[in-house]
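Good day; I would like, with your permission, to put a structural problem before you. What I wish to show you is a protein chain and, alongside it, a tokenised description of its three-dimensional fold. Please examine both parts with care and let me know of anything in them that strikes you as inconsistent. Thank you for your consideration; the sequence and its tokens are set out here:

***
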Amino acid sequence: MSPSAPPSALRLRGLPKVSLPASSSSPPSARFPHHLSMSASSSRRPPPLAATAAAAGTGSGASPSLLAADPGHRDAVLLAARGAMANCLGETSLHLAVPGLRLAAKGKVRDVYESGEHLVLVTTDRQSAFDRVLASIPFKGQVLNETSLWWFDRTRHITPNAVVSSPDKNVTIAKRCSVFPVEFVVRGYVTGSTDTSLWTVYNKGARNYCGNVLRDGMVKNQKLSANILTPTTKAADHDVPVTPEEIINSGLMSKEDFDEARSKALSLFAYGQEVALENGLILVDTKYEFGKTADGTIMLIDEVHTPDSSRYWIADSYEERFSSGLEPENVDKEFLRLWFKNNCNPYEDAVLPEAPEELVCELAWRYIFLFETITNTKFEIPKTQCH
């Protein structure tokens, strides 16, 4: 499967009938067909995965992997993913189908449309890494959107966010705001495989990264003594690491805005780590984006604590695998990154190898596994639709 494979361009049902005026005082969700509405998500699921790991916990010998706690469910998801590979949501053209929408941007994963004071963000199944699209992953867009909605709802005590509604499982309608040109990357471990990851730069000899002094002698996947912020500028092709002083001195953000966003980012990450650990996972690192409304409110935007924007590891196996020099069990797109790093030069090769079907389906499973483990709800796999 190649990234350019033509998945269903309009899997979002009923949207040609939608009327979304460029200006309206009613919530955008009210103007989408009823059958597109969704709650934050899916039916309650008995907490099988985290509970199984906890029950297996402290006896003699190593605990079984959390990823293998429900093999029947895993097999069912893998089967569904194989059946959906030809129906991934790779491209959207809502501006041609929905009156009042204007295409604002096509990101590596999200297509963004404008309508008056609102943005319509469609999370596709496109999979990006190394600053390019690598593949399409079944159900990925829905998983990311629903994971973000869950976290947005549960982090309101830390920061307001831009979410207005979600009229479809792949769609979020958000308030328009002025986006800060900085990504707030928070890290708890020395790890990663990309050019800007902490382990890559540390392994090359860097001991001061984005204003953080790093001690000698650390090894890959080691826990930091404290969480750190390593911001980057948001560039079109490649994010550039930057220090807080450079952000402020260059005018990218005022000191007041930066300090508030930094505080929010660190608080969000600490809370995310707490919730993840309660469910048998380690939130390793993540990135946040913030924007500012016309009244000066700083809001969390884009996505939050998804397996695209974050690294997650299985907690129970981390210490044993770290001590043995093995990679942690990851539940994020690092699984895909490592395969491409081992099979090509993903930054420089003009043509990349095709991601194997087994890899693609395994990644779909891990994304769904993460959603279900964090939220303790059952992911609703969409029925395959051909258009």
